[in-house]
């Protein structure tokens, strides 16, 4: 269980993290979603004590991270897979962690097996590793102490599709056995398939949070037509809330209501369906649009 | 999920017994391992022995037969030690930042002062052991060298003098360590050590030669000068006091400032 309460981090006048509160629960995968630079990494760094908070608190299993007597046995952390001594072998990196935690030496081999790093690969120095191999090594290090809580920053980065699938199954199984998983991503679809709960952050603030089904259910109906002005007039007349997306309209109503409106207005539809996730995607795109260098997201 | 279910789950999970605190001896053992387990670290350590052997060989080859005594070997070996030990100490700290391993180290051990303390213990240990190994290699060279030249084997370094030399080198090593903690950057710490240890002494010497007020003050303000007495083989009470005062100002205080910075800084 991870509990974050009114966490803020200011750099001069800039609020990197602004009054963030959420809870990651045991038995569930909590997705921490936001565009690049939204404050995900800073929040995670504060959780594990690498960055001091300006105000607010973060606790893991009811205690501040610094108060954990042997943190590796309680929290598995992977913040940056590339932050390793390039001259150490993969096996040596795990051995150093295993010794620090005071675990039996056999755990290193078990973990290497689990993340499918072969003996030849684990004997190589990390400077020769691909990003995907570094991520696997980082996951192995995080799982080494059989912790109850996992904090992973963009763990799918650099993994190939099979690797992403493997990671998804691994984390699912881990949560199903009662573990708490918090993982961040800047990719909505990546996190949609694995997370039970979502925390969406933008510009340092939380913009939405809840279970995935709640956030998806709130999405309404997605409808497409060649005659957009006629349909929107009909929706206004029916008193329905809607928003125009890139090539479709999202309506805050059930599909059959929208279908009735279309029939009454006499507009031919090209598509009518429940908007599962479209609302979330729209919100996420808006967030991204503010921070995107290209300026135009839509 | 209902509130009751959450309640139940959390109590079930926190029921696992709290692990014991990581003992300091384990941290020291891990830090010792980390100073050997990379190729660069290994060769840096190996260079202590290699340089001692090279310096011994050079003394046998180049020193005039009449001057071939233990002091000649000791001073020949002393110089490379004075260079390499502080670098080892500085890198043990700075690599956590320059190689970004601090991200892992300080999440496994959030009390950064414990990690720095373990590194300090390892550095001092390596310093003392290295000096003893160097002294032994020098002694071997003395026996071997005089056997080759056929001159008498002269042991003109007393146990007290040897002890002073070890103290001086460990102090030098601590200066490297202090700069590592203070600067947290490998290049800056090494350059800083060379400026401090090799560029500053000639300047203070020049100043003392030309300004009487500094010449009177120097023993109490110049750390290098105060350390120099350790190599002269005689330490009076005044000398020890001077060493203590200058160490406090040039070593302990900056180390305290550096430690404070380490504890408060972000580990990126």
CATH superfamily of the largest domain in chain A: P-loop containing nucleotide triphosphate hydrolases
Strand content of chain A: 25-35%
- Could you give the distance between the termini of chain A? 38 Å
Number of DSSP E strands of chain B: 0
Tally of domains of chain A: 2
Largest sheet of chain A: 6 strands, mixed
Bin the helical content of chain B: over 70%
Q: In sequence order, what are the helices and strands of chain A, one letter per element?
A: EEEHEEHHHHEHEHEEHEHEEHEH
Output mean pLDDT of chain B: 89
* Low-confidence residue ranges of chain A: none
The helix content of chain A, as a percent range, equals 25-40%
Q: What's the rounded overall pLDDT mean of chain A?
A: 90
Q: Can you tag this structure with a few keywords?
A:
heterodimer, A: about 300 residues, alpha/beta, Rossmann fold, Alpha-Beta Plaits, 2 domains, 6-stranded mixed β-sheet, 4-stranded antiparallel β-sheet, 11 helices, about 35% helix, about 25% strand, B: about 270 residues, mainly alpha, globular
């Amino acid at each position: 269980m991870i509990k974050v309460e009114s966490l803020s981090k200011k750099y001069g006048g800039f609020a990197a993290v602004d009054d963030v509160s959420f809870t990651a629960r045991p038995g569930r995968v909590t997705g921490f979603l936001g565009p690049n630079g939204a404050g995900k990494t800073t929040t995670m760094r504060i959780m594990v004590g690498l960055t001091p908070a300006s105000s607010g608190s973060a606790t893991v299993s009811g205690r501040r991270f610094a108060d954990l007597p042997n943190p590796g046995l309680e929290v598995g952390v992977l913040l940056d897979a590339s932050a390793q001594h390039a001259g150490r072998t993969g096996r040596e990196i795990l051995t150093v962690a295993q010794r620090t935690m005071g675990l039996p030496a056999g755990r290193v081999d078990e973990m290497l097996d689990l993340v499918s790093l072969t003996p030849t690969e684990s004997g190589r120095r990390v400077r020769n590793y691909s990003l995907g191999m570094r991520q696997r090594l980082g996951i192995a290090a995080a799982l080494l102490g059989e912790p109850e809580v996992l904090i992973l920053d963009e763990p799918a980065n650099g993994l190939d599709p099979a690797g992403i699938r493997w990671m998804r199954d691994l984390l699912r199984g881990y949560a199903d056995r009662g573990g708490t998983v918090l993982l961040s991503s800047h990719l909505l679809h990546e996190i949609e398939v694995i997370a039970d709960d979502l925390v969406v952050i933008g510009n340092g603030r939380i913009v939405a949070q809840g279970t995935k089904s709640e956030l998806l259910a709130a999405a309404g109906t997605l409808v497409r037509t060649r005659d957009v002005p006629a349909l929107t007039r009909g929706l206004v007349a029916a008193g329905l809330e809607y928003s125009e997306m890139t090539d479709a309209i999202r309506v805050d109503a059930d599909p059959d209501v929208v279908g009735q409106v279309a029939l009454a207005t006499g507009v031919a539809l090209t598509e009518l369906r429940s908007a599962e996730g479209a609302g979330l995607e729209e919100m996420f795109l808006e967030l991204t649009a503010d921070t995107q260098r290209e300026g135009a997201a839509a | 999920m209902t509130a009751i279910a959450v309640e139940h789950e959390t109590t079930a999970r926190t029921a696992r017994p709290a692990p014991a605190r990581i003992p300091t001896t384990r941290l020291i053992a891990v830090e010792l391992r980390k100073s050997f387990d990379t190729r660069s670290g290994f060769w840096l350590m190996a260079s202590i022995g290699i340089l001692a052997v090279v310096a011994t060989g050079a003394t046998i080859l180049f020193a005039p037969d009449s001057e071939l005594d233990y002091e000649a070997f000791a001073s020949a070996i002393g110089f490379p030690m004075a260079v390499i030990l502080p670098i080892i100490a500085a890198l043990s700290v700075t690599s956590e930042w320059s190689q970004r391993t601090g991200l892992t180290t300080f999440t496994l051990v959030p009390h950064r002062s414990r990690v720095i303390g373990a590194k300090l213990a390892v550095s001092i240990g390596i310093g003392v052991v290295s000096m003893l190994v160097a002294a032994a290699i020098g002694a071997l060279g003395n026996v071997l060298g005089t056997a080759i030249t056929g001159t008498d084997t002269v042991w003109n370094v007393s146990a007290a003098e040897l002890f002073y030399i070890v103290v001086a080198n460990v102090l030098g090593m601590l200066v490297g360590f202090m700069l590592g903690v203070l600067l947290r950057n490998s290049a800056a710490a090494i350059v800083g050590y060379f400026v401090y240890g090799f560029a500053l002494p000639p300047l203070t010497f020049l100043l003392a030669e030309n300004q009487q007020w500094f010449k009177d003050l120097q023993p109490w303000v110049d750390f290098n000068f105060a350390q120099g007495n350790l190599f002269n083989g005689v330490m009076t009470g005044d000398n020890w006091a001077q060493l203590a005062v200058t160490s406090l100002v040039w070593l302990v205080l900056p180390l305290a400032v550096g430690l404070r910075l380490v504890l408060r800084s972000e580990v990126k």
